[in-house]
Write a structure and sequence with these properties.
Strand order of the largest sheet: 6-5-4-8-9-3-1-2-7
Distance between the termini: 40 Å
Largest sheet: 9 strands, antiparallel
């Protein structure tokens, strides 16, 4: 194949030609936003500028040439892994062998090599510690080179570790390369350039703030929309040595992936479309009863399951003569959850109990319909999976991080927690005394205590994993910014746990999880369409102050302000808050963002009985109207961002009504992300929070990550002395960005 031939040719080049080739292709590399983010120019611009003006002798003493050339090889290997760039790279290789390449292009050698060295320094744990330059030999296979390139770039395990975003993505063989034209009469660094990049008296350094045509500017922090890959659906197969095990005996499991659905395993996994020979390496976490274990699985289109995941777990103790016990396998690609498989086993009290002849297939989870994986998405720094156990109120926690491998729980039960009371009742009893009223210092201290109570309810395993990761990050090498919670428990505000631990972190000041980190949650049982890049070209708003509406006593003047904000600033289409008009929009409307501000009545006992109050009251919008086929194929096909500002009907003083039913309904219908207060808000601060959210998030080419926007909003709760700032949660990827255009 052409790609394999290119890998061989890259390995055969000497260092001088590697540098020449990289200089030739430099503009393509540095126009890619992910490369720019990896190099972290907004934070490294100072050191880079200092390198740019150093005298050559000092620069040589400071920088490791070998590492930069090694990383140059890695970048070229990653570039070669993109099949659609094979022709242009092959053409460049033909030219470099004949010394016909342009010596200087719009990205000068100094900037490339300095950037590579900064990249090596920033990822020294992943690069220098994991792979030695001497390992790159003529005997290295293309797959191994891709893997090394992925380590060097901290990229995903796909055949295209960098999702290129070029202004001319389809590059023909006869492309004259307008960016890197051979006859460029104004090269940035010509051979006889009187102002070389490393000259001390350079009056126009390449990254100067006043450069009128900068390649990479210090304040350019908004990446362009990455190119999307199509997805392939494959099906889990959980094979067991005994489908009728006796309690407390060992059961051996073998997990594989198949192109067809199997008869005894439900679920699905979606993987990026790749060349047939490319091997996907997945982490598999198997849960059976109260036990769990990890293993890896390797799969390719060409060869199917190359390596199965194998487990040996005990059948759980049961009550009664027999019980159907579910074995569940969670699959992770690039540290991101990408699917799940389940099968039932007939666990018997002892061998005298007759075997069940027909074991039913577990119900297919609703998220299978719309599972979306973005191969170019950055994994969260910590993923926490909170999964229902076999006993009501019992939950098992799993932790995963791209920065380190957590050891398994030291003993059985360390990763389990049991809610002693109903989660919704716990939240109401804990936070109701603080709702809808200013907080005095004593109340604020009580609220901090409530956050510590939530932290103490988490299992020992989570606390061990969290603080291990925190201390590793504090020691340097990576940043601990984001936390993704995938939960089967919708009510508990894990975001508000106060991280205070006198044993694991005695000298670390306590802080709420969602203020220390960007946090996003996801309801695993409802959908799996969260995206890290949300493109919005059209918004819609449905809001009402209820002025002049009889039968509605409480007016919402700030809802009218939210309506005006969306229409005037973001050119939102107006959707009247009436039952037929809003339902019609949900079934056939076109928008990638929807803002709703209105009264609602919430029922945590029966979430489907919750409703949003329409202007044509007593008509109402319920979760059952949202979570329907027509909405999935209508508004849901846009995979929108939804902002739901629900204000509880008649709630005053110390009351707290959990927003129930609607987050799950919108996620099921196809929403990529949803922002909502965890409990209904009756305060004009809701309008100010919405205004700040859109100002920070709705930016052309990508605003601040949604998790970061909400983190900054929550951080003001002490200054503002109000619980409203802590109420908002993000259902979605904490690092998701909106490209508003």
């Amino acid at each position: 194949m052409m790609t394999q031939d290119i890998f061989v040719r890259i390995r055969a080049l000497d260092d001088r030609k590697i540098i020449k080739l990289l200089r030739y292709l430099g503009p393509m590399f540095f126009k890619d936003p992910r490369i720019r983010r990896l190099l972290d120019f907004e934070e490294k611009a100072g050191p880079l500028a200092a390198l740019a003006v150093l005298a050559p002798s000092k620069k040589k003493a400071l920088l490791d040439t070998n590492r930069s050339i090694w990383l140059a090889r890695m970048l070229l290997s990653a570039f070669a892994a993109q099949p659609r760039f094979a022709e242009v790279l092959a053409k460049a290789l033909d030219s470099v062998q004949q010394d016909e390449l342009v010596l200087e292009t719009q990205v000068p050698l100094g900037l490339i090599t300095d950037s590579l060295r900064l990249l090596a320094s920033a990822h020294i744990a992943e690069t220098g510690g994991a792979v030695n330059r001497n390992l790159i030999t003529d005997y290295q296979t293309p797959d191994a080179l891709v893997k090394i390139a992925q380590i060097a770039l901290a990229a995903e395990s796909t055949p295209s570790p960098i999702q290129w975003s070029l202004p001319y993505p389809n590059i023909a063989v006869d492309d004259v390369h307008p960016v890197i034209a051979v006859d460029d009469v104004h090269p940035i660094i010509a051979v006889d350039d009187v102002h070389p990049i490393i000259a001390v008296d350079d009056v126009h350094p390449i990254i100067a703030v006043d450069d009128v045509h900068p390649i990479i500017t210090v304040d350019d922090v908004h990446p362009v929309a990455p190119i999307r890959s199509s997805l392939r659906e494959v099906y889990p197969d959980i094979a067991v040595d005994d489908v009728h095990p006796v309690a407390n005996t060992i059961v051996r499991f073998t997990v594989s992936l198949s192109p067809q659905e199997t008869t005894d395993t439900a679920g699905a996994v979606r993987l990026p479309e790749t060349p047939p020979e490319f091997e996907h390496k997945l982490l598999v976490h198997l849960l059976f009863g109260t036990s769990s274990a990890w293993d890896t699985l390797t799969w390719s289109v060409q060869r199917g399951t190359i390596k199965t995941a194998s487990f040996a777990l005990p059948a759980p103790a049961i009550q009664g003569r027999r019980a159907l016990v579910e074995a569940r396998a969670n699959f992770y690609l690039n540290q991101r959850w990408c699917g799940e498989g389940q099968r039932n086993l007939d666990v018997r009290r002892d061998s005298t109990v007759a075997m069940q002849t027909n074991i039913p297939l577990p119900k297919t989870p609703p998220w299978r319909r719309d599972l979306v994986l973005q191969p170019d998405a950055h994994p969260p720094d910590l993923t926490v999976r909170i999964q229902k156990g076999t006993i009501p109120g019992d939950f098992s926690w799993t932790c995963l991080s791209p920065h380190l491998k957590f050891p398994p729980p030291a003993k059985e039960g360390d990763n389990r927690m049991s809610l002693k009371e109903d989660a919704a009742n716990f939240v109401r009893m804990t936070f109701a005394p603080f709702a809808n009223m200013p907080l005095e210092s004593l109340k604020m201290a009580e609220l901090e205590g409530a956050g510590e109570k939530i932290y103490r309810s988490t299992p020992k395993y989570f606390r061990d994993c969290y603080w291990t990761l925190w201390h590793k990050a504090a020691a340097g090498g990576f940043k601990f910014n984001s936390v993704q919670i995938i939960t089967d428990e919708p009510c508990m505000p894990w975001e508000l746990m106060r991280l205070s631990d006198l044993t694991r972190a005695p000298h670390v000041a306590p802080e709420l999880l969602a203020i220390r980190h960007c946090v996003g949650r996801w309801l695993a049982d409802e959908s799996a369409s969260m995206r890290q890049w949300i493109s919005v070209s059209k918004a819609a708003v449905s809001a009402s102050s209820y002025d002049g509406i009889s039968g509605v006593s409480g007016k919402l003047p700030w809802a009218a302000k939210e309506h005006k904000l969306m229409v005037d600033t973001y050119r939102a289409d107006e959707v009247p808050l009436t039952s037929e008009r809003l339902r019609g929009f949900l079934e056939g409307g076109v928008a990638q963002a929807l803002h709703i501000a209105c009264h609602g009545q919430m029922s945590i006992i029966d979430p489907d009985a919750s409703y949003l109050l329409m202007e044509d009251t007593p008509q109402k919008l319920t979760p059952l109207l949202v979570a329907r086929h027509e909405v999935c194929n209508g508004f849901g096909r846009q995979h929108p961002l939804v902002f739901l500002n629900a204000c509880d009907v008649g709630a005053i003083g110390a009351s707290l009504s959990l927003v129930a039913g609607f987050p799950a309904a919108f996620l099921y219908a196809g929403a990529s992300a949803l922002v909502s207060p965890l409990w209904a808000i009756n305060d004009e601060r809701a309008q100010k929070i919405a205004e700040e959210f859109y100002r920070e998030a709705f930016v052309a080419s990508g605003g601040k990550p949604l998790g970061a926007v909400l983190r900054d909003i929550r951080a003001r709760w002490k200054e503002e002395k109000h619980l409203t700032y802590l109420a908002y949660v993000l259902y979605g990827d904490p690092m998701a960005q909106v490209d508003y255009h």
